Amino acid sequence: MCWLLNLLYALLIAAASPLLIYRAVAQHKYRQGWGQKLWGLAPRRTGDRPCLWFHAVSVGEVNLLAPLLAAIARRHSHWHCVVSTTTATGLALARKKYPELIVFYCPLDFSWAVEAAMRRIRPACLVLTELELWPNLIAAARRHGAHVMIVNGRLSERSFRGYHRVRWLAASMLGQVDLILAQNQEYADHFLALRAPASRVHVTGSLKFDGAQTDRGNAATVRLRQLAGIADDDLVFLAGSTQAGEETAALNAYRTLAQEHPRLRLILVPRHPERFNAVAEELDRTELPWQRRSCLEVAGADANARVLLVDTIGELSSWWGTAHIAFVGGSLSSRGGQNMIEPAAYGAAVCFGPNTRNFREIVALLLARQAAVVVADAGELTTFVRRCLLEPQFAEAMGERARALVAAQLGATHRTLDLLESLVAPSAGGAARAA
Asked: Is 61 a catalytic residue?
């Protein structure tokens, strides 16, 4: 089976090679880490401490691991945690966020690459974040004596339909997973429908809630406020995790309202770093005074620039703490939405577009508590921001409901760690001996 998969992967890469080469040349993507990706040359772990290998695909998954890794450090300081990721932005953030941990690119699912990585890392447990089912990786972990676990499991309707088409393969992979910790009952039911063993599926809630910061006075947010020159009486409208077209919508809202509300400030945080320059060019065309985040520490804050482009990665969660009004991107496009928990936790007045399938349950909770608003288009976004400015009591009440909702959802980290302990603690170190 593994060699059949190897052949399939090779054919897929060959078919996609023109696009990959174009992106490597034009967008400077896919240029790093090929020794780790293709040959499994992960850092060679030393010592015999029980090792947990956490795989987080990209920035979102890297961020949500923070409360779980912190809880492990407090309760099991002798465990050795390592983190792998798939994307360059995810790797950069993981190295910045977890400087004390081994961080590396996850090998591609070729049999020789995953085998080499397993020999070098020697994990007692492979922990897959949200959903990363790679047959050779999972099989290699089992051959090397490691447990396999899915945390914060998410299997949306769209993903479920995809896996259902190859349910024989999905069932085989899920049968090798020791624990599947789903965010909610809907996702748990999807795993069960793919014939995951019922005794191994648990609903633990979402780690995203536990990872959310609720204190606007946290050190990182305070530092950014000072760096950007945000005054106490400024009203910050932040559009975060934005996709193409959504910055335009936020800019239109700001330009419409700024003259009437001179204390209004706009912060734009595009989702993908490769779009920073395109957004900068759009800002230039508006002829509005604006500034890049990357220039603040060098040039200082420009008092005339009421628009800020955040062209750095890994800071959005802290920037949300500056926002009074928040638009969560990826929701006016076909992306399916981005994480709206962080601005809600800070008590911002939160809005997003109608396309939020990736966060359906969280959206349902927010809307049921009147803790967020759906805006159908750019015009409705402007209307929402205007109402928040004209009716501050409306915005404050919405923010307080959002903050209370997040506080009520906390606890997924402890439930996850309790189950992780039941898996790892009795046999910790077995994988190292087996390797």
From this structure: yes
